[in-house]
Design brief:
By secondary structure, the protein is an alpha/beta fold. Helix content is about 40%, strand content about 20%. The chain contains five helices and five strands, in the order βαβαβαβαβα. The chain has a five-stranded parallel β-sheet with strand order 2-1-3-4-5. The longest helix is centred in the first third of the chain and has 13 residues, at about 10-25. The two termini are about 15 Å apart. The mean pLDDT is about 95.
Length: about 120
């Protein structure tokens, strides 16, 4: 059974690039353009295995999304990776405290993205 990854980013080109990269590595990929839109997938019967989210998005940002996802007992231990241009240590620390598993800085290297995803999905 393929692992299901949810990509959340307000940039359509980033969503498409990440989708292409991860589908090529044999993952099922779903996507949303903001945190609020992403929440509907967590009420779905499909179980997400990984959340890959941007930080800065309209309507609901990545930090708010993590707070909501971690409140759902089914997803309290699911890996969550930020994929963002943000590099500030304080923001990384806050994300970690909210439950983020890791951080990938844009622009990303496709091989590194795949290896990081595989590592957190073990």
């Amino acid at each position: 059974m393929k692992k299901i990854i949810l990509i959340v980013d307000d940039s359509e080109s980033i969503r498409n690039l990440v989708r292409f990269t991860l589908e090529g590595a044999d993952f099922d990929v779903l996507s949303a353009e903001n945190g609020q839109e992403a929440l509907k997938f967590f009420d779905d019967e499909r179980k997400m295995h990984l959340l890959l989210t941007d930080l800065h998005m309209p309507i609901m940002n990545g930090m708010e999304l993590i707070k909501h996802v971690r409140q759902n007992s089914m997803y309290s231990h699911m890996p969550i990776l930020f994929l963002t241009t943000e590099t500030q240590v304080g923001i990384k620390k806050e994300a970690k405290e909210l439950g983020a598993t890791g951080w990938i800085v844009k622009p990303f290297n496709s091989d590194k993205l795949i290896s990081t995803v595989k590592k957190v999905l073990r």
